[in-house]
Amino acid sequence: MSTIDSTLITIILGSKSDQPVADKVTAVLHDFQVNYSIHVASAHRTPELVMKIVLDSTASVFITIAGLSAALPGVVAAHTIRPVIGVPISGKINLDSILSIIQMPPGIPVAAVGLDNGSNAALLAIAILAISNKDLAKKLENYRKKARAKIIEANNDMN
Amino acid sequence: MSTIDSTLITIILGSKSDQPVADKVTAVLHDFQVNYSIHVASAHRTPELVMKIVLDSTASVFITIAGLSAALPGVVAAHTIRPVIGVPISGKINLDSILSIIQMPPGIPVAAVGLDNGSNAALLAIAILAISNKDLAKKLENYRKKARAKIIEANNDMN
Amino acid sequence: MSTIDSTLITIILGSKSDQPVADKVTAVLHDFQVNYSIHVASAHRTPELVMKIVLDSTASVFITIAGLSAALPGVVAAHTIRPVIGVPISGKINLDSILSIIQMPPGIPVAAVGLDNGSNAALLAIAILAISNKDLAKKLENYRKKARAKIIEANNDMN
Amino acid sequence: MSTIDSTLITIILGSKSDQPVADKVTAVLHDFQVNYSIHVASAHRTPELVMKIVLDSTASVFITIAGLSAALPGVVAAHTIRPVIGVPISGKINLDSILSIIQMPPGIPVAAVGLDNGSNAALLAIAILAISNKDLAKKLENYRKKARAKIIEANNDMN
Amino acid sequence: MSTIDSTLITIILGSKSDQPVADKVTAVLHDFQVNYSIHVASAHRTPELVMKIVLDSTASVFITIAGLSAALPGVVAAHTIRPVIGVPISGKINLDSILSIIQMPPGIPVAAVGLDNGSNAALLAIAILAISNKDLAKKLENYRKKARAKIIEANNDMN
Amino acid sequence: MSTIDSTLITIILGSKSDQPVADKVTAVLHDFQVNYSIHVASAHRTPELVMKIVLDSTASVFITIAGLSAALPGVVAAHTIRPVIGVPISGKINLDSILSIIQMPPGIPVAAVGLDNGSNAALLAIAILAISNKDLAKKLENYRKKARAKIIEANNDMN
Amino acid sequence: MSTIDSTLITIILGSKSDQPVADKVTAVLHDFQVNYSIHVASAHRTPELVMKIVLDSTASVFITIAGLSAALPGVVAAHTIRPVIGVPISGKINLDSILSIIQMPPGIPVAAVGLDNGSNAALLAIAILAISNKDLAKKLENYRKKARAKIIEANNDMN
Amino acid sequence: MSTIDSTLITIILGSKSDQPVADKVTAVLHDFQVNYSIHVASAHRTPELVMKIVLDSTASVFITIAGLSAALPGVVAAHTIRPVIGVPISGKINLDSILSIIQMPPGIPVAAVGLDNGSNAALLAIAILAISNKDLAKKLENYRKKARAKIIEANNDMN
Q: How many CB atoms lie within 10 A of CB B49?
């Protein structure tokens, strides 16, 4: 990956079982040739590991993935001023992870995206990076164009 | 308080605005003459303070009080093997704090009590202490008897 | 089981169909070599049996498992001052058992854990016992260490 | 009350604070000149009192009123084969008392009516009694007619 | 069925797809040898048929079964002063049928039972009939005893 | 009102207490000089009156307003093939009236609008009438333009 | 299709994955021989396409189908004064699409039908068209009669 | 404001009634001396104005504030590749605006923050800008320190 060398995004999964949603994140990042590091660390079972990953990271943006009482995004946000994106994972209740991630107290924001929506987490991270990265901005415009073209084509196929 | 000298319970509020529920906790503890320490520390804004309070504490049981995305009980539980009781605080949604506290991942339990139910948090802590403290057990039996008598009296007043 | 002889924990299932969650409880208790007794008794269909089990039990902690309108934890708590842990069972609604167990009236606390979270119920019971049992406290520290090591290993495997 | 002498309905409040909804019950029963007894007894704080009231009662129908984790209707139903009506009381969540009362396990039914809907609890009890009581059936027909007339009048007033 | 000749219960399904829950109702009624009639009629698609069934019925109690916006129980109750039991049917939301059935306006009560809980609807109807039918009361006592014995046996099997 | 003579819209309130939301409906209809008739009739307490109003009405569209288990819109729709708009009324739960109105079974549609949103019910009725009424279509365009202008003005005031 | 020539209804799917619900819409429209056009266009990914479809359409009624944060119905309604029907699509939460479609702000109404209820969307559109189309009105009466007959037959089959 | 000259953030309110939450946003931006523009524009009532504001804006980040069926954040995101933050506004349901904002379809992300949480929206925007703005990063570190100090002081005051 010649265009973008350093690790721009640090991904943290709260549990290995969150891998399928992480795969949606990394699929988009590969498309955009954005370097990332990926980790498993539980806010509740390994708080020190979470802290170490955050402090060691030189990434610009964090993507955190967690289900149930999803404390991970908030705990990561507590240890950095860099933007933290939170992806709630579906389960038997769904409102648990959504509300745990979105209802942060004033002072420590988390950017919540939709349930299991790993691709949107990646695209939001890229949109953030694209503010000061023209190459990524161009790629993002192209990505949108392709998505648009695909729907227009699907629409044409219907008639 | 001669019978019970050391601090048996450490109370942590996630925010000063949780004081009214903390008052319900301490009212019960005063009744039972149980020593406690009380602190304000936010899992998101002051994670180090939370950790310091937990590690410094020699209490047997923690009572944690938090609203919104109530990470505090889980974060305290992450730093100790002692039992942690979590009290969800009411707000505009209510299910946010309840689900954040009760839906802990396997491995790090929190003992959740009802919304704003500070007195039950105190009584649960006392029940836990009473396992190996006959004086507290006796007081708890008496407390129950009085509550029972009050209802029986209310019932008699109706007829 | 030489180290811990007497029955420390009494487990009550509200229905035979709750067995899979009870198995998660007993798996942890076996790991910790903690003696327990296990029963099936419905708060609604066999209230006398529930009461008999509670009054006969010499255990220090109760673990109760129930779904739907999960009255069992509260009914057990009504008959003892010992700590009662409640595990809500999943079904078609999920909020029914969670709210039935967590929303106890002031005076009779139940320690609610997460939906179907039998292992956390066991670990909470052990944490309560560990206050005055150094052997269990050491085992609990080890259990946590192993869980931590497993995540750290999983994390290492990712990179 | 000459027409109906014996106590036909036993009302039990889970807490003194449920009185306003109990007043809606008794207002209807007075209208219909139906004798009732009224009690306060908590399923969690005074289970023996609940059982005593149920076993002592010679009423044909029970009306039970409770909020939060509303175990009272189910606990009454556990001690009698007579029909038990449950009225959920509103609070900060509302779904707690509704689901606790309606989601009874197979075998022990409770007849749930709407949130705070004391008058419907009374009317349902009267409908049950009216099956074998022609006087009450006639009164119920009249009550319905009056309610109908009131709406028809309100409708006429609009045009 | 010699002991109880006339039709005591009229069952109405809102849709043919509710048959599995109706089967739970009739299984219990067969056990108790209670005569019933059974119908399919939609409150929305065939309101006249619903009304005809209600007015033609000489049963003492109605059991109505409906999903989604479950208007059937309330519409039946609007046409009779006899007790109407409503069984909410599960689907993609579940709260829709539960709330539609339980939240009746003051004046026209419905006795709501749990989601898909056909057996409790039947048992509630029998409890209502048993007020003035000693044979059914005895059978209901026996039914409860058997249910109790089954749990006690299951409990014995565990130890 | 010279331009539009006959009654185009029939409004039915499920209860007199729904008047404030009905006032939002009629305020819009007055603005558009659309003739309407307005009635109070309960689907549960006066089903015959509801049917009579529907069968007597020569209006093109029905607007129905109801709270709790809001059966009125569906019951009106059951008696006519003309479009029926349903307005859910807010209360202690809110999801009850919304789900009762929106979750109609296949075959009998109701057009649900937002909670307490009387003005949108009126505007939807006008949009339906405007399909074949150029005068109303022009008025509706103007109404939208004014709403737009008001926001543009508010926006200009901010800067 | 000789009786009704021009396109009366424009259907827009927010995503190709909504096709199964669109099929329920078109099945009813085929039954009624109502001409329609059908399109795929995302309010979020192709807002210009949505606008173009709306402005190009000469249909009298729009049927829009969308899941998740279902903005499509509201965005269509923002570009036309013609009636817009919204069909929420089921997913992991269900309340997301229902609330997104029904809770429109005052001024821009959407006619919401039930979750996945494509046939009701079609029937509501036909009811709207039938106001000024006697042929469709007759067909709709017949459709209802057939639905009624089918239930009456099912009812007869039970007895 | 010498350090940061150009407009970095564009704030859009869906309605003038959202002003109190917008005030929380601007209070934080004033603290950080970050230039912003502020607008009122409804996604449903003035879609062209929304598009014009987005296309005219040279800001790096958008903050959008909306209640009910909160389409505004998604509609803004549809017209730009720059990051869009969405603030759900509280009302009678609360889950409506939260789910409308968070449940975006794959391809067009919105960064959702908590209910009415204007200050977190501002802090998230600043965190995003701070990636490539050392001055803002320093200010954000200071802001956090002050918040931390305030809690530590509150904690000291308790003991």
A: 19
Answer whether F86's CB lies under 8 Å from F111's CB.
Answer: yes
The three-class DSSP label of residue C158 is: helix
| pLDDT digits (tens), chain H, 159 positions | 334 458 999 999 999 999 999 999 999 999 999 999 999 999 999 999 999 999 999 999 999 999 999 999 999 999 999 999 999 999 999 999 999 999 999 999 999 999 999 999 999 999 999 999 999 999 999 999 999 999 999 999 987
The helix (H) or strand (E) run that includes residue F86 is strand F84-88
What distance in Å separates the CA atoms of residue C87 and residue C98, rounded to the nearest whole number? Answer: 8
Tokens for C94, please give them. 């999920």
Q: Residue holding tokens 């001024």?
A: G107
Provide the Cα torsion F132, F134, F137, F141; round to 10°: 160
Interface check A159 vs G, CB under 8 A: yes
Show the tokens assigned to B159: 């007829």
**Between A and C, how many residue pairs show a Cβ–Cβ distance under 8 A?**
34
Helix (H, G, I), strand (E, B) or coil at A149: helix
Asked if B127 reaches chain H (Cβ–Cβ under 8 Å), the answer is no
Among residues G92, G132, G93, G90, which one has the least CA distance to residue G114?
G90
**From the list A103, A121, A130, which residue is nearest H81 (CB)?**
A130
Would you call A105 an interface residue with chain B, using a CB distance cutoff of 8 Å?
Answer: yes
Using alpha carbons, list the distances in angstroms from residue D73 to C14, D64, D114.
17, 5, 14
At A49, which helix (H) or strand (E)? helix A47-56
What single DSSP character describes residue C131? T
Chain position carrying tokens 């809907």: D117
> Chain D: nearest CA to F3, how far in angstroms?
22
User: What are the C-alpha distances in Å from G97 to residues G82, G112, G116, H64?
Assistant: 22, 10, 10, 20
The answer to whether H88 and H21 have CB atoms below 8 angstroms apart is no
Question: Which two structure tokens, joined as six digits, stand for A114?
Answer: 């939709």
Q: Is A27 on the interface with G (CB under 8 A)?
A: no
- Residue D142 corresponds to which tokens in the numbers above? 């009249």
Name every residue whose Cβ is closer than 8 Å to that of residue A108 and which is 6 or more positions away in sequence.
Answer: A74, A77, A78, B44, B45, H120, H123
Buried b (16+ CB within 10 A) or exposed e, D61-74: bbbbbbbbbbbbbb
d(CA D52, CA D72): 13
* Element holding H65 (H helix, E strand): strand H61-66
Q: Which of C31, C16, C110, C96 is nearest to C63 (CA)?
A: C110
The pTM for the full model equals 0.97
Spatial distance between the Cα atoms of E67 and E87, rounded to a whole number of angstroms? 8
Contact state of B44 with A77 under an 8 Å Cβ cutoff? yes
The token duo for A23 is 């795969």
CB distance F85 to F113 below 8 Å? yes
Q: Which residues in chain D come in under a pLDDT of 50? A: 1-4
Does E38 contact G at CB distance below 8 Å? yes
CA distance D91 to D89: 7
Which of D82, D102, D140 lies closest to E113 in CB terms? D102
The helix-helix angle for G95-102 and F95-102 (nearest 10°) equals: 90
Per run of 10 residues, the mean pLDDT along chain E (length 159 residues) is 70 97 98 98 96 97 98 98 98 98 98 98 98 97 97 92
Query: Which amino acid, one-letter code, is at B20?
Result: P
pLDDT tens by residue, D73-82:
999 999 999 9
Mutate: best of F96, F155, F159, partner H, most H CBs <10 A? F155
H or E stretch covering A26:
helix A19-31
Among candidate residues A93, A116, A122, A101, the one with its CA nearest the CA of residue A17:
A116
Q: CA G148: distance to chain centroid?
A: 22
Can you tell me the distance from the alpha carbon of E53 to that of E41, in angstroms, rounded to the nearest whole number? 8
